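Hi U.,

Before I forget, here's the chain from the pilot set. I'm dumping it here mostly so it's searchable later in email.
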Amino acid sequence: MSKKVLLASTIGAIANRLAEVCEKNGATTTLINQGGSIVKELQNGNYGLFLVEHNFLSGEHRDTIYQIRQQTALQDLFVAVYAPSDLNDEQLNITNGANTILTAPFSDAGMYSLFKRAFALPKQAVLISRTPQEEFTFALIKLGYELRVLSSAEEVLADTVPEVPDFIICDYSLSEMSSIDFIKKAKELDRLKGVPVMMAYSGRNVDEIEKIIKAEACDVILSPYASPRNLKKIQDSFPLPPRGRRLKALVVDDSPTIRELISSMFKELDYHVETAENGFEGYKAVERLRPDIITSDYDMPVLNGWEFCTEIRDHESYKDIPIIMITTRATELDQKKGEILGVSAYLTKPFQKNDLKAAVDIAINNAKIKKEQETIAKFVAADTIRAVNNMIDGDGDVKKGESKFISVLFSDICEFSPKCEKFSARKIVKLLNTYFDLMVEVLSKHDAIIDKFIGDAIVARFDSGDVEMDAKNAIMAAWKMCDELKKFNLDSFEEIQCRIGINSGDVILGSLGCERHRLEYAMIGDNVNIGQRLESSAPKQGIMLSEATYNLVQKHAIVGERQQVEVKGKKEKIPAYVLKGISSDNSNF
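Structure:
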């Protein structure tokens, strides 16, 4: 994001003061071109912050913020309105869509805080430690935090730099004062009273931990401090600014007061906020805004909260957006209904801002966990996840491996390297992913487990335990893959042909790799190698089966003559068949 500021003001002295503070913080400031189009100037100037005086937003400029938010290119622009502190409701209305309202005096600390939000600057952390662990400090910096390391608590209390830290990590064992006293003294200072303090404690004494909790430290991390668990805790507590775009919130409520309360809270968290007064208008806003989170009232005209939630959950593109239901109803039955309808969190009126923030944190965290699980599932085979769960549950057999009779399928694109030379990387990736999506859909419908992707190759296995059904599913999936590929080629910018090899037999399944680095749940063995070699020997746009597989599917497969195939690493040739078709009894698959 560009560190450029556009200023719009009716009072020259205020504009000059703001420009001075902006430039002091390393920004380039430009005054608005009177008489020109503000939206066009913002679009052409690549500005990251629009500072506008409240009095400027009157008359012909009354809808300026609304017009800005209608432009896709300006969705992430940070808009700050500087105004008197005593605005009434009508005056506040013209600031809707702004990220924050800035009131005088314009202190260096306040402006730096504004800049940090506007330009998504790294969060500042202070570590108080006599002997900081190098691994821990390096990890914090690598995560993206701007870190200052101070050796004493007195230095932090006496610090006068304008940059107030976002959080402090304090070593429990300090020399000149106790860490508990530091927390108390920090809360007495206007500069630090709102800064959360996390305690780094190397011991395991329950009484001392109790003292830390009673001192109201925001959290405690135990040694070793650079552990993945601690680093995740820090990231969750003090999330780094989003890269590339500002998060968006939609507030749906028929009460203007509640809408404004919730909107202001989201703006404090740097969300772009839009509002709607009922479920019908809310749904239209979802289509336009694609928000990252939604809050919805329960009782609303036109389309109530339940109906609105149902509409969102029934739409494929919106179904995963976290929704917080806000209502006066708090019965167990209502909460159960909310759970069934996909409500992410439930908040009962009346509530405080802290209650709302906690509900937002829960909803976003639950959505994040779900997204993480879905993302992991895209990269990890289903049975690998089961193996991980078994290891977590203490099942040591997964590490030892097991021998199992399964059917394996190898698929590879013919003459793929020339295609890579012919097209750009972007086109190749698009071609491959479209092809993979189609092939994996076919395989999944036939109960395959996708073992891995190797370049342009797909490795799948069929191991339900029913060996005949597994072999049957393998040949039917292969035949359908070739059939779908013919249809794919009719519309593709480049024709793809593939070879498929299938073998059945005993393989070894287990976790392979280095426990200190990474394990992979994989299959190995002679029968895996044979499946791969059969794929290499298959005809273009054809399927080759081993005799072991054919013996299991004779009733279902139409094959060519028995062949003897040379397989690398094997002295004797392997009997195999080219699949010519599927018997009429199994044609509808």
